[in-house]
Amino acid sequence: MYLAKVTGNVVSTIKNKHLVGFKLLLVKPIDLQGNVKEENEIITIDLVDAGIGDNVIVVDEGDAVQQILGHENAPVNVMIIGVVDNIETQDII
User: Fold this and answer.
1) Are 63 and 78 in contact (CB under 8 A)?
2) pLDDT tens figures, 51-76
3) 11-20, 30-39, 48-57, 68-77: which range is least confident on average?
4) Which residues contact 40 (CB under 8 A, 6 or more apart)?
5) Which among 30, 87, 92 is positioned nearest to 58, based on CA atoms?
6) Which of 18, 40, 45, 48 lies in disulfide reach of 74, CB 3.0 to 4.6 Å?
7) Chain-centroid distance, C-alpha 11
8) Looking at beta carbons, which pairs linking 43-48 to residues 24 or more positions away fall under 8 Å?
Protein backbone atom coordinates (compact mmCIF):
# COMPACT_ATOMS: atom_id res chain seq x y z
CA MET A 1 0.00 0.00 0.00
CA TYR A 2 1.04 3.58 -0.50
CA LEU A 3 -0.26 7.13 -0.31
CA ALA A 4 -1.22 9.01 -3.48
CA LYS A 5 -2.95 12.17 -4.68
CA VAL A 6 -5.82 11.95 -7.15
CA THR A 7 -4.86 14.02 -10.20
CA GLY A 8 -7.59 13.24 -12.71
CA ASN A 9 -10.48 11.16 -14.03
CA VAL A 10 -10.43 8.49 -16.72
CA VAL A 11 -13.62 8.21 -18.77
CA SER A 12 -14.11 4.94 -20.63
CA THR A 13 -17.54 4.24 -22.09
CA ILE A 14 -16.41 0.89 -23.50
CA LYS A 15 -14.50 -1.29 -21.04
CA ASN A 16 -14.16 -4.79 -19.67
CA LYS A 17 -17.50 -6.07 -18.32
CA HIS A 18 -15.98 -6.53 -14.85
CA LEU A 19 -15.17 -2.79 -14.70
CA VAL A 20 -18.64 -1.52 -15.61
CA GLY A 21 -19.97 0.68 -12.82
CA PHE A 22 -16.55 1.46 -11.35
CA LYS A 23 -14.95 4.91 -11.46
CA LEU A 24 -11.38 5.11 -12.77
CA LEU A 25 -9.03 7.79 -11.43
CA LEU A 26 -5.46 8.91 -12.08
CA VAL A 27 -3.15 9.11 -9.05
CA LYS A 28 0.46 10.06 -8.32
CA PRO A 29 2.29 8.63 -5.27
CA ILE A 30 3.05 11.11 -2.46
CA ASP A 31 5.39 11.17 0.53
CA LEU A 32 4.32 11.54 4.17
CA GLN A 33 4.34 15.34 3.83
CA GLY A 34 1.88 15.14 0.92
CA ASN A 35 4.45 16.08 -1.73
CA VAL A 36 3.90 14.41 -5.11
CA LYS A 37 6.78 12.14 -6.07
CA GLU A 38 8.29 12.42 -9.54
CA GLU A 39 6.53 9.39 -11.02
CA ASN A 40 4.09 8.70 -13.81
CA GLU A 41 0.37 8.82 -13.15
CA ILE A 42 -1.30 5.48 -12.42
CA ILE A 43 -4.84 4.47 -13.40
CA THR A 44 -6.75 3.08 -10.41
CA ILE A 45 -10.21 1.75 -9.74
CA ASP A 46 -11.96 3.83 -7.05
CA LEU A 47 -14.03 2.07 -4.38
CA VAL A 48 -14.44 4.98 -1.94
CA ASP A 49 -15.74 7.90 -4.04
CA ALA A 50 -12.48 9.85 -4.01
CA GLY A 51 -12.10 13.00 -6.08
CA ILE A 52 -9.46 15.16 -7.73
CA GLY A 53 -7.14 16.64 -5.09
CA ASP A 54 -7.84 13.97 -2.46
CA ASN A 55 -5.02 12.13 -0.75
CA VAL A 56 -5.83 8.42 -0.85
CA ILE A 57 -4.61 4.98 0.21
CA VAL A 58 -3.79 2.79 -2.78
CA VAL A 59 -3.28 -0.97 -2.82
CA ASP A 60 -1.34 -2.41 -5.75
CA GLU A 61 -1.04 -6.07 -4.85
CA GLY A 62 -2.91 -8.13 -7.44
CA ASP A 63 -4.14 -10.85 -5.07
CA ALA A 64 -5.46 -8.32 -2.54
CA VAL A 65 -7.28 -6.38 -5.26
CA GLN A 66 -8.90 -9.52 -6.62
CA GLN A 67 -9.92 -10.54 -3.09
CA ILE A 68 -11.53 -7.15 -2.43
CA LEU A 69 -13.51 -7.38 -5.69
CA GLY A 70 -14.61 -10.90 -4.80
CA HIS A 71 -13.44 -12.55 -8.03
CA GLU A 72 -10.30 -12.89 -10.11
CA ASN A 73 -11.75 -12.04 -13.52
CA ALA A 74 -11.44 -8.25 -13.35
CA PRO A 75 -8.30 -6.93 -15.09
CA VAL A 76 -7.40 -4.72 -12.12
CA ASN A 77 -4.24 -4.56 -10.03
CA VAL A 78 -4.39 -1.06 -8.50
CA MET A 79 -7.26 0.18 -6.33
CA ILE A 80 -8.10 3.15 -4.08
CA ILE A 81 -9.31 1.79 -0.73
CA GLY A 82 -9.42 4.90 1.46
CA VAL A 83 -9.48 8.71 1.51
CA VAL A 84 -6.89 10.20 3.88
CA ASP A 85 -8.14 12.88 6.26
CA ASN A 86 -4.83 13.57 7.96
CA ILE A 87 -1.24 12.30 8.02
CA GLU A 88 0.50 12.52 11.39
CA THR A 89 3.96 11.17 12.15
CA GLN A 90 6.10 11.17 15.26
CA ASP A 91 9.87 10.82 15.53
CA ILE A 92 10.74 7.93 17.83
CA ILE A 93 14.30 7.74 19.08
Assistant:
1) no
2) 999 999 999 876 777 777 776 777 77
3) 68-77
4) 28
5) 30
6) 18
7) 16
8) 43/10, 43/78, 44/4, 44/78, 44/79, 44/80, 45/19, 45/76, 45/78, 45/79, 45/80, 46/22, 46/79, 46/80, 47/22, 47/79, 47/80, 47/81, 48/80, 48/81, 48/82, 48/83
Judge whether 18 and 73 are in contact, CB under 8 Å: yes
pTM of the complete model: 0.85
Q: What pLDDT does 64 receive?
A: 72
**Can you give the pLDDT at residue 34?**
87
